[in-house]
Amino acid sequence: MRVSKTVVSIVIALFLALPAFGQQTGMKPVIWHDRGDVSSLDLLAGSGGIQPPAAKFTFVKEDMGGASPKFEVVDAQGVHWKAKLGEEAKPETAATRLLWAAGYFVDESYYLPELRVEKMPAKLSRGNEFVSKDGVARGVRLERTVTGREKIGTWSWSSNPFTGTKELNGLRIMMAMINNWDLKEPNNAIYAVSGEASEYAVSDLGGTFGKTGGVGLGRTKSRLEDYSASKFIDSKDSDEVHLTIKSRPFFLLAVDPYHYNKLASRANVGRDIPLADAKWLGRLLGQLSIEQLRDCFRAAGYSPAEVQGFAKVVQGRISDLNKL
After folding, report:
1. Where along the chain do its domains lie?
2. Biggest alpha carbon distance in the chain?
3. What is the pLDDT of residues 187-237, one digit of tens each?
4. Is there a contact between 39 and 100 (Cβ–Cβ < 8 Å)?
5. SS3 state of residue 262
6. Burial class of residue 88 in the structure, from the number of CB atoms within 10 Å of its CB (0-12 exposed, 13-18 middle, 19+ buried)
7. Helix (H) or strand (E) holding 268
8. pTM of the predicted model as reported, rounded to 2 decimal places
9. Cβ atoms 290, 311 nearer than 8 A
10. 293 and 315 in contact (C-beta within 8 Å)?
């Protein structure tokens, strides 16, 4: 049976419209929430609060999405969790706490040095180097599945309901502050929350706290020496500041202009930020104490030296915003 061009066009249009699904259903799109007294936030706990690990986790299935090995588990209370293994587990846990403190929506994440999982398969499709034969996974970011919160689409940095607002510009600054180089659209989620609002969030924050760069240019994750050596503010003029997010790929990839330009354009997330919006975010983050900043990295399982080092760099970048 032949499918008409009209039907194909309709299907494509519906697919492209997914990022705006929250608006079409009448739900209010939101990207930022006032946390109130930022200086009183518990960043060791994060958005969901500290809870003792469940006594029992049971394997459900593997999740093959993304670059990091992941699998789903359910605890004794019937709560579903997604476990991520590998080098993204620590930086993502820390990043969620910093963004949450700034007022942005994040996934509820925790870091566990070890996670014992019942009915773990003898061999996973990937990530077996992080799992022992007795079902103990090492270095795990555990993300809770929140009842009443459902992913309904993705959104792009160049096209969304918040373009030109201080709240979106603040999120752009946060991406540069944590050196997030993985700024592709699939990493930006729209969540329907109890059918009332659509929350716009950056849902994958694993490519952070290292060195930014394009494919083939040595970008890193979770490396203090790279993060501390990298540049935050590139330049400023009378009314805008330009932040450093290196994304231009290896020059040989220019043989594929579409993907080359798509990767290179991610640097624009940090460009042309109004000074007023940068100062707004700087004042907000300036309420955080050095101990709160350290708690972001303590919660992520970093060593004491790394906790001190990462927090010092973040504190310096907040200070840079407040000096603009």
Report:
1. 26-322
2. 65
3. 999 999 987 789 999 999 999 999 987 665 688 999 999 999 999 999 999
4. no
5. helix
6. buried
7. none
8. 0.87
9. yes
10. yes
